[in-house]
Amino acid sequence: MTSGTALIYDEEMTNYKLLWDDTNCGIEVPERLSSSYERLKHYNLVERCVRLPVREGTEEEIMLVHSSDYLKVVKNTQTLNEEELRRVSANYDAVYFHPNSYRCAKLAVGATLQLVDSVMGGEVHNGMALVRPPGHHSQRNAANGFCVFNNVAIAAEYAKRKYGLQRILIVDWDIHHGQGIQYVFEEDPSVLYYSWHRYEHQQFWPLLRESDYDAVGQEKGKGFNINVPWNKVGMGNADYLAAFFHVLLPLAFEFDPELVLISSGYDSGIGDPEGQMRATPECFAHLTRFLMHLANGKLCAVLEGGYHLRSLSESVCMTIKTLLGDPIPHLSGEMTPCLSAVESIQNVRAAHKPYWKCLAYEEVPPLEDLSTKLHKAAEAETAQTGTCPVTKDNAVNRNRDEALKIERFLELHMKNILFPVPPTKTAAAVISESDARLLPSSVLVEKEIGVKELKSIVSEFDAKLVKEEKVLNSLEKMLAVLNKIIKKEVILKPFIAKTLTGDFMPDFGAYAPASQEQVLAIQKLRDQLQLDWKMLQCSGKQLVSSSTSLFCGNTIFKEKIL
Ligand code: Q9C
Ligand code: ZN
User: Fold this and answer.
1) How far is the CA of 380 from the centre of ligand 2 (A)?
2) Is 137 a catalytic residue?
3) Is the pLDDT confidence value at 150 over 70?
4) Closest Cα to atom 9 of ligand 1
5) pTM score, whole prediction
6) What spacing in Å lies between the alpha carbon of 428 and ligand 1's midpoint?
7) Cβ contacts of residue 110 below 8 Å, gap of 6+?
8) CA-closest residue to ligand 1 atom 1
9) d(CA 529, CA 524)
10) Would you give the DSSP letter of residue 483?
11) What is the pLDDT of the chain when averaged over all its residues?
C-alpha cells in the first residue's frame, strides 16, 4: 500500500512575467504561483506533503507532443530582446514570451513528469504540481492562451509509453476549453479527455466550433472526447456536480482508467475574472474526492489557469487537503443545477449515447427541444399573466405526445438521481444524501403535494423512512419541483412509487465469491461485449490480463482462463 501526497513546486517558475502592456495577458502573473504556495503554508499543508524536486523536461519528452520546429522557436526566445519577444508573441493567440519562458516551460513539463513518475512508481498515492506556464491550450506547432508546452498532454503520452498504460483519463476543470489536449488525443481511444468550459454558444474564447458537445472524437477515438459547453456564466457547485454525476463519472467508471490526470485550472472558481462562474473552493474538494475513486487513487493534478489570487489559492488548498484524505467540507448554496446546465448536460449525454453502455438505455427525446420549449412557454406565459403556465391546469394545451415526453423526462431525471447508488441503500436515503441537487429546475414553486400526502406515499414502501424528517424534506423539495413541471399527481404517483421501491435497480444480494461456472460465463460475456465496452475495447492485453487480475484471488480459475 502506498500512501502520501506529492507536492511539486519551485519558485523558479515565478521568474517570468509580461513585460509590456497587453490586456489579454495581464492576468497571468507570477503571484498566481507564490500566493498559492503561501496559502498552502498558511494551512500547514506543505509539511504534510512529500516534496519532490522539479527537473527540466527533455527535448525528447517535449517532442512527444510538439514539433521540433516549434521547440526551436520557443528555445530561441531565451536570447531575444523585448521588441523581438513581442514579435514572436504576436504570432500566437493570447501569449507572451519572456527570456525565462523557455526555462520555466521546461520546468513545468519536468515537474509534471516527476509527479507522474512518483505516482506510477508507487512512492506516493497522488499529488499536485504547481506550475507556470500552464499547458492545455498549447498545440503541436503553437503556443496559445498563456500556454507554451502542453504539460498534461505530454504527461499522458509519457505515461502511455513508459508504463504501458492503456487507459488514461484527463479531467480538465479549467474554465477554458483545453483545445490543445483535444487535438492531441482526438483519434486516440486510450486517452479519455473531459472538459467543461465557458462557451456561450461559441461567443467565448477560444471561440471554437469544436468546443461544443458534438465534438466526441474522431475515427477510433470516437466517444473518447467529452465537451460540456456552459452557455451561461454563473455556473456553480450544483451545475458542476450535476455534470460530474450525469456525464463524467458514469463514463469514467465505465472507462476504468489506470491513471487520472487533472488539468487543474481554477478559473472555473468563484470570483475569477475570466470564468465568471460561482463554484466555491469547497466544490473542488468534492470534485477531487470523486476522482480519487478511479484508477486505484492514482491521480495527478497539474495547475492550469486561475486568476483570482484568493479564490485560486483557497481552491488549490482544498484540492491538496482532499488528496491528503482530509474530510470533505459541506457545500452551501443552491443545490439544483440551472436549466442551461441541464440542457448542456443532456446534449452531451445524447451525443455520447452511441459510444457508452451507461447511456445506451436512455429513452428520451432530445432534451434540448423539451426544456427549451418548456422554458420559452413559461417565459411567455409569465410575461403575460405573471404566473407560470406549467403549474396551471389548462394554461398549456398539451397533447398526449407531449405529456408522454414530459413523463419520460421525469423518469430520466429520477434515474439520474439514483444512478450512482448501490442497491443496498433505499432510494429515499440516497435522495436525502444527494440533497436533491440533481433536479432539473431551481425555481421556487408552490407545493402541490404536501408533506402529508408525501408521507402516505412513502409509508407504503418503508415505514421507517417517514420518521426521517430530512428525507422527507428532500423529497418534498423534489416533488415541489416536479409538480411545477407537471401538475397531474396521477402520473407522478405510480412513477415515484416505482422509483422509491428501487424497481429498476437489480438486487445483487450478499457478496459471495464467484463460482467457476460464473467466471467462465463472465469470460464469455467479456468476449461478446468487447466490441462495444470501452474498458475492454481499448485494452490491448484485454482478456487474459484483466480476467486474471479480476479473479487473481483464486488460482484455480486462473489456469482455466489462461
Ligand atoms: N480577447 C488559461 O486559463 N483570453 N488560459 C483571451 C481574448 C485568454 C486562458 C481573450 C485566456 C487564456 C490557461
Ligand atoms: Zn483557463
Assistant:
1) 36
2) yes
3) yes
4) 145
5) 0.70
6) 44
7) 54, 55, 56, 57, 61
8) 24
9) 9
10) H
11) 79
* Phi, psi for 300 (deg, rounded to 5): -125, 120
Which ligand 1 atom is the nearest neighbour of the CA of 267?
3
CA 197, 201, 207, 209 torsion-angle sign: positive
Smallest CA separation from ligand 1 atom 2, residue: 305
Q: What are the angstrom distances between the C-alpha of 25 and each of 97, 233, 258?
A: 10, 21, 36
Measured from the CB, is residue 265 less than 6 Å from ligand 1? Answer: yes
* Spatial contact of 137 and 265, defined as CB atoms under 8 Å apart: no
DSSP characters over 149-195: S-HHHHHHHHHHHHH--S-EEEEE-SSS--HHHHHHHTT-TTEEEEE
Rounded Cα distance between 169 and 224, Å, is 9
- Centroid of ligand 2 to alpha carbon of 176 (angstroms): 4
Residue type, 41: K
Which atom of ligand 1 has the smallest separation from the CA of 145? 12
28 touches ligand 1 (CB under 6 Å): no
The alpha carbon dihedral of 307, 311, 312, 315 has a sign of: negative
Nearest to 258 by CA among 301, 287, 302, 298: 298
Which amino acid appears at position 27 of this protein? Answer: I
> pLDDT tens digits, residue range 401-448?
454 554 454 454 444 443 333 333 344 444 444 433 333 222 222 234
State how far the Cα of 544 lies from the Cα of 533, in Å rounded to an integer: 16
**DSSP 8-state class, residue 139:** B
Which residues are near ligand 2, the ion (C-beta closer than 5 Å)?
174, 176, 265, 267, 305
CA of 274 to the centre of ligand 1 (A): 7
